[in-house]
Amino acid sequence: MKRRAAIASALAACLSGCGRSPAPADRPRWPELSVTELSGQAATLPALSTQARIVNLWALWCAPCRAELPALERLGMALAGRGVQVSAIALADDVFPVREYLAERAARLRAAVLGPRQPVVRQLGLDALPQTFVVARDGGVLACWVGARDWDAAPVRAELDRVLKDA
User: Fold this and answer.
1) 8 Å CB contact between 91 and 59
2) Which of the 8 DSSP states describes residue 128?
3) What residue ranges define each of the domains in the chain, with the CATH number in brackets?
């Protein structure tokens, strides 16, 4: 319980300074996520990774979330060569509608489904969607943004490049 409170507190602090990269010692830690792949298989997204990650949390009912997915897919393709993984994690109980939606609009975007009632959703402080987290290889959260972004826009890409320097 104390660990959950610490994660929630750290991520809340990160969210309060959205867009700013905290010092390494002050970075909140990204949690391990139990997700369902679009194939229907259960999977675990680890807290640590061999790559820096951009993790976008979204939902089908969220129009701004849906609107940014194609640009997020393009961002993922652009950053793949730099060793940065881009993922879209849908908050949903059913994989099928998420899989069908993404097949039509962002088929090459790495995606999974996270049950909206899982405790980690509260730990992440997901009171608004979409939320996008930049996570370093060591699991430290470098930045987080609340709300849809134009991932194709030069200023957004420049800000992302600045944050990824610490990844």
Assistant:
1) yes
2) S
3) 2-164 (3.40.30.10)
**Bridge pairing between strands 110-114 and 131-135:** unpaired
Tell me the sheet residues that pair with 35: 43
Closest to 56 measured CA to CA, from 82, 27, 79:
79
Q: What are the residues whose beta carbons fall under 8 Å from the beta carbon of 138, sequence distance 6 or more?
A: 48
Q: What is the pLDDT of residues 80-123, one digit of tens each?
A: 999 999 999 999 999 999 999 999 999 999 999 999 999 999 99
* Amino acid letter, residue 159: E
Kindly give the residue spans of alpha helices, DSSP state H, lying in the chain. 2-16, 63-80, 95-105, 119-123, 154-164
User: pTM of this prediction?
Assistant: 0.85
pLDDT in tens, 92-104: 999 999 999 999 9
Q: Give the rounded distance of the alpha carbon of 165 from its chain centre.
A: 18
